[in-house]
Design goal:
Largest sheet: 24 strands, parallel
Oligomer: single chain
Number of strands: 35
Distance between the termini: 94 Å
Length: about 500
């Protein structure tokens, strides 16, 4: 009897346990592991130049290595230098001697100075002090100083691993045959020793490709118009050492050229544009200033399949110039222009005129009119300032705008009405205006008119130039822009109309 009761009790307990387990979630054993401290940091490229002062190597970036004023026939001056790589990327370098003085006097004395070079081989404390010892140590004669100055292949080249260094000696020797006619002369105001470094195709990318940086090149340093044109004709990287003024446009056709202006100015005193990029030209311009006041010209002109990139550059088109940057109608449908962090100043004129092309303007500060009538245009960031045109008598509101544009309807013209950005949709005339995106722009559009009064011009004015029936209009996107000046009725300075006077809901 007790067994039966026990069995019944056990069975009841089992049923209750099963009932309690129904709907219960089982706990499973778990584990995890975390990899911490991952970083993505760009490498840096940093070259250093030091000189042996008799006891140690010291920085030579601010004091001249050669600084002697009692040269005489047979005198030799030797300097031990250390070219270092203080960065995290391997580099290749080129040592250039650059003279800013091209006078006849400077060249005369330089012809009597021979240049010798020796890489490694001699401890700096055992540096030779006279010409005979120099020859015994194996110094190589590179030529006379004029031959050495400004030569494109540089005085010496080398490759240095990250945190490594190259050691070398440079010797200048005045020829024994130099006579009395070389007295009281100087090599101008001296010369610069420049070590130009670029990334070495040493590192591999994430796919094990060791040649992803193989195109890194040492720049050719130029300081005259002839040197600049010769370097551009060959292609590659060019660096301005001085301001250069052109008498003719710098024609770049089917070449890959990078022009590093640094803090220098490239200008034009002749006729025409400064840079003409045509064919399949691939052009990069960075730093410095492009400046022209030639009648009807532009600092930058591009057509065909040219690819132009401009970075951190100041572009000035004077009162006689027609444009700051321009493409060339239907000849520029395959042209690409990307401008980043640039300043464009085209007073009372067209800062940009784009009838075609794939155009990107990123964080540019622009003064002058921007005319868009073709292509695919993306404007992002920056400040755009309308400054009208010379002697502007009024603001061109709707009625005046329509009347003015109708004058050009059969002649395919364009008009400068003093606004900041004018978009002319002329698709029936063969211009392929695809998309226009304007975002994150700060607009200043207050003008001072001819009579001295102030009024607000339009920040963006879109005109369906031909109002072609049944055709879809351009995709226009305006987003996150700031309009610092309002129209008389308090509205943002925007206009979207057809040339027949109809309002367009953008």
């Amino acid at each position: 009897m007790n067994k039966k009761k026990s069995l019944k009790a056990s069975g009841l307990s089992l049923v209750l346990c099963i009932a309690m387990l129904i709907g219960t979630t089982f706990a499973w054993f778990t584990d995890s592991i975390t990899n911490t401290g991952n970083k993505i940091e760009s490498g840096d490229l940093k070259v250093t130049l030091q000189e042996w002062n008799g006891t140690s190597y010291v920085d030579a970036s601010s004091t001249p290595i050669f600084n002697y004023d009692k040269w005489e026939p047979g005198y030799t001056d030797v300097a031990a230098i250390k070219i270092g790589n203080a960065g995290s990327l391997a580099l290749k370098y080129k040592v250039d001697f650059v003279s800013k003085d091209k006078s006849q006097e400077a060249n005369k004395l330089a012809k009597a100075i021979d240049v010798y070079y020796l890489k490694d081989g001699v401890a700096p404390e055992k540096m030779p002090t006279n010409f005979a010892d120099l020859q015994k140590k194996g110094f190589v004669k590179l030529g006379t100083l004029p031959e050495f100055l400004n030569r494109e292949d540089g005085a010496a080249t080398g490759k240095i691993e990250a945190q490594g260094a190259d050691f070398a000696m440079i010797a200048l020797h005045m020829q024994e045959s130099a006579g009395s006619e070389y007295q009281n002369l100087s090599v101008g105001n001296g010369f610069d020793i420049i070590v130009n470094a670029t990334q070495l195709n040493k590192e591999t990318d994430g796919f094990g490709n060791p040649d992803y940086d193989a195109d890194a090149k040492n720049p050719v340093v130029v300081s005259t118009t002839t040197e600049l044109k010769n370097a551009v004709a060959k292609g590659g990287v060019v660096k301005l050492e001085d301001n250069i003024q052109l008498s003719q446009p710098l024609a770049i056709n089917d070449k890959k050229v990078e022009i590093r202006l640094g803090d220098k100015k490239l200008s034009s005193s002749g006729s025409g544009n400064i840079v003409n990029a045509t064919g399949t030209a691939d052009v990069t311009i960075s730093g410095g200033e492009l400046n022209t006041n030639n009648s009807g010209a532009a600092p930058i002109f591009a057509q065909d399949s040219a690819n132009v990139k401009v970075e951190k550059c100041n572009i000035v088109a004077g009162s006689k110039a027609a444009y700051g940057v321009v493409t060339n109608g239907s000849l520029s449908t395959n042209t690409k222009i990307v401008m980043t962090d640039c300043k464009i100043d085209s007073p009372k004129n067209y800062a940009y005129y784009f009838p075609a092309g794939d155009i990107t303007l990123k964080n540019c500060n622009v003064k002058g009119a921007v005319i868009i009538s073709g292509g695919d245009v993306k404007i992002d960031g920056g400040t755009y300032t309308a400054d009208g045109f010379t002697g502007q008598p009024k603001i061109w509101h709707k009625a005046d705008t329509i009347s003015y544009m109708q004058k050009f309807s059969s002649r395919d013209g364009c008009g400068h009405m003093g606004d900041s950005i004018l978009i002319m949709d002329r698709r029936s005339n063969g211009y392929d205006l695809k998309n226009v995106s304007i975002k994150n722009v700060n607009f200043d559009t207050q003008l001072t008119l001819k009579d001295g009064t102030k009024a607000t011009a339009y920040a963006v004015k879109y005109i369906d130039y031909n109002n072609k029936s049944g055709a879809s209009r351009v995709n226009l996107n305006l987003a996150s822009n700031k309009y610092n000046n309002k129209l008389a009725d308090g509205k943002d300075p925007l206009m979207f109309i057809g040339i027949d006077g109809s309002d367009i809901n953008n």
